[in-house]
Amino acid sequence: MPTELTKLRAENTQLMSELQVFYKAMESKEPQDATKQRLEKFHSQLVLEAASLRNEVAGLKRKRWVIQAVLANGGESEDRVIKEELQKLRQKRSEEQPEHQPSPKG
Known about the structure:
- This protein has one domain.
- It is built from two helices and no strands.
- It has helices at residues 2-27, 33-96.
């Protein structure tokens, strides 16, 4: 998990540096209106994509949490069932064995 977090932080840093390129181009005083409009459009698309990725990551985190909870509860359920089966087998075995009768000493 820590390596995954490190990768995500590195990717975030890279995306922020790419975003700075857009901001610098939009702030330029050159008369390149078409370029600025394209950059604004790309920037808007980038922001929308980032928002959708955040939503997707949040959904995946929820799914991971649900799966972990199900697995944890499933393990508990299986353990309980196994213990119940063992108890039944022990009871059956004890019922099948004749009770210990003292041998007559004579």
